[in-house]
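Please fill in the sequence for the structure shown.

STRUCTURE ENCODING:
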């Protein structure tokens, strides 16, 4: 696609009103001019980005953590993940988050995909990596993180998805990437 095709749908920002500035996210309301000349407002969440790791153990299990997710008012089972610090390289952040949440270290990571989590209202991009060369260390979660580590089989992961215990996009995508990897040998 050429650049003019992308501009065909462009919404030009006329005004930005900051609403909230938090530790992790900020919220703004943009007034935009639509392609047909009309104006509209867009509520936008700004996020620094995040990383997640599909970590596979020597015996063919995926490392996951269970934690309570307040917006959902329930616990979820997810792959290790976390937000990028300002200016942090996603690869370094992925290694850091893996060790903090699980206690496992990895020498190398393979990039699977980077994707926007909710482009209708947020600019958060998530970088998904995979690692198979893990060494056990000691977990060091953030002081406000309460996690329980589990190493699960693909069949357990699929059952957790059916039960709704795994239902976030990054972990669902990781399970499908793992299934593809088991079938084809590549992500």
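FILLED IN BY: designer on duty
SEQUENCE:
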């Amino acid at each position: 696609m050429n650049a003019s095709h992308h501009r065909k749908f462009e919404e030009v920002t006329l005004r930005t009103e900051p609403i909230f500035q938090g530790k992790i996210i900020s919220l703004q309301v943009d007034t935009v001019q639509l392609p047909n000349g009309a104006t509209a407002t867009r509520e936008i969440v700004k996020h620094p980005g995040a990383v997640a790791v599909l970590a596979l153990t020597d015996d063919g299990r995926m490392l996951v953590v269970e934690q309570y997710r307040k917006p959902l008012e329930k616990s979820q089972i997810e792959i290790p993940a976390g937000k990028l610090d300002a200016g942090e390289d996603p690869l370094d952040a992925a290694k850091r988050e893996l060790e903090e949440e699980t206690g496992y270290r990895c020498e190398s990571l393979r990039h699977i995909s980077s994707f926007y989590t909710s482009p209708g209202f947020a600019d958060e991009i998530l970088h998904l990596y995979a690692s198979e060369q893990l060494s056990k260390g000691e977990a060091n979660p953030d002081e406000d993180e309460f996690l329980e580590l589990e190493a699960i089989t693909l069949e357990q992961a699929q059952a957790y998805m059916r039960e709704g215990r795994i239902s976030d996009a990054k972990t669902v995508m990781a399970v499908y990437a793992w299934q593809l990897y088991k079938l084809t040998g590549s992500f």
